[in-house]
Amino acid sequence: MNVDIEDLHVGYAGRNVVAGVHLMAAAGEIAGLVGPNGSGKSTVLRTVYRHLRPTAGRVLLAGADLRTLTPGQTARRVAALPQERGSDFELTVREVVAMGRTPYKRAFAGEDRADRESVARALAAVGLAGADTRRFSALSGGERQRALLARAFAQDPDVLVLDEPTNHLDVRHQIELLALLREQRRTTLISLHDLNAAASLCDRLHVLHDGRVVASGPPREVLTPQLLAEVFGVRAAVTAHPLTGDPLIAFDHRQRLPTGGG
Ligand SMILES: Nc1ncnc2c1ncn2[C@@H]1O[C@H](COP(=O)(O)OP(=O)(O)OP(=O)(O)O)[C@@H](O)[C@H]1O
């Protein structure tokens, strides 16, 4: 299911922080949103999982305007790992993951076999099968992240929206998460700060700067030293990863450059 965002304007308390954004993810593609702090990545993603309503422009799922879908229809199509991650659930890990099945259930209906299988698959996928009876609130930050990702998988969505999912994860779990997303082959919109992870994972990148998209395309075309200097204010060389051939950004950690804003 492809996602198209057309001329999106959205913000908070009457102030647009995103203005005129166009971006897309083709069906089955992983599209990355990268950009400096405050550039609008989370704000764009919040419109896709309907946490925020656009002030102008449209979000289309397989050509259908999100506004024409009911909340239930949206929940069966789109699952999100938002930046606001609750820590106060007095639920077990399994119960949190099972919340992902809610869009498929009638009120007060119990779990059926398909639900149980879906929850078990999602827990196994994120490596938490053995932790299902633990309290969510007692998990580490990275474990919570993985439980919430499992909840999104259990929702069996056409579109995954992930806001900084590698936040809190150690390097091994980061790599596992990227592998999992590649395997899922779902249409995915993901924001990432780690540009090397984004270069390795994403089919397409959209670079945001001050609430606008300033570059879009395959990572190797988008992530140039010039863009990194202009948008992020860093000096970097871009080479090919010696093991994978992916674009590899080698940052100069001794120097920063003036930026145009942001
Ligand atoms: N809940 C909110 N209320 C008011 N302003 C907000 C809110 N969330 C974000 N903003 C503002 O909107 C702008 C874009 O923020 P957003 O969180 O979308 O950026 P981001 O690119 O995701 O940043 P980061 O990389 O720091 O997560 C910023 O100026 C931010 O201060």
TrEMBL record:
<dbReference type="GO" id="GO:0005524">
    <property type="term" value="F:ATP binding"/>
</dbReference>
<keyword id="KW-0547">Nucleotide-binding</keyword>
<keyword id="KW-0067">ATP-binding</keyword>
<dbReference type="InterPro" id="IPR003593">
    <property type="entry name" value="AAA+_ATPase"/>
</dbReference>
<feature type="domain" description="ABC transporter">
    <location>
        <begin position="3"/>
        <end position="235"/>
    </location>
</feature>
<protein>
    <submittedName>
        <fullName>ABC transporter ATP-binding protein</fullName>
    </submittedName>
</protein>
<dbReference type="InterPro" id="IPR003439">
    <property type="entry name" value="ABC_transporter-like_ATP-bd"/>
</dbReference>
<dbReference type="GO" id="GO:0016887">
    <property type="term" value="F:ATP hydrolysis activity"/>
</dbReference>
<keyword id="KW-0813">Transport</keyword>
<dbReference type="Pfam" id="PF00005">
    <property type="entry name" value="ABC_tran"/>
</dbReference>
<dbReference type="InterPro" id="IPR017871">
    <property type="entry name" value="ABC_transporter-like_CS"/>
</dbReference>
<dbReference type="InterPro" id="IPR027417">
    <property type="entry name" value="P-loop_NTPase"/>
</dbReference>
